[in-house]
Design a protein that fits this description.
The chain has a single domain, classed as 3-Layer(aba) Sandwich (Rossmann fold), CATH 3.40.50.150. The chain contains four helices and seven strands. A seven-stranded mixed sheet has the order 3-2-1-4-5-7-6. Helix 2 links the parallel strand 4 and strand 5. It is globular, with a radius of gyration of 18 Å. It starts with a helix and ends with a strand.
Length: about 180
Amino acid sequence: MWKQAEKENEGDQKKNVQNFIKLKIGCHNKLDGYINVDIDANTNPDLLSDMRNLSTIKNNSVIEIIAENVLEHIPDTLTALKEFHRVLTAFGKLIIISPHALNPNLHSTPDHYKGFTYTTFAQFWQDDHINYPKFICHKRRLILEYKFWQFLADWFPLKMEKLFWIFPPKEIHVELVKP
């Protein structure tokens, strides 16, 4: 009887997870199992929408959002992060991959507004920023242009960022969790 109750509970948990959705913002690389969202109809998105206005998605209905190389394309990052926070469930995951602000290729395309640094997203888990949605930082990583030196960036990301002329940064990877 006890084992049957455990099996029923596991089944209920699987059903609950299946009721939630995963979003991939930007359709440059579409992912199976995700609703691929893009503002450009030419990319054939599953959902044609601006990441700053996901009004067709219910509050607390998304368990994971991947925003890969998209935040640098909008002038107002805070609006997008507020929208991501709104649709994420409690303990929902937001994965951000974005060009570093000191990446020499950041402004090689005219539609890049800005890059990000290792500390850019820190205000989202600090208490003194009251107008920012709150997240828990699960992972944060500075990615260097030259992989040979990556171990130094993993150990000393802030120091490596200051040595950008010797070790050029490429990207920032951040994984945030909604509390």
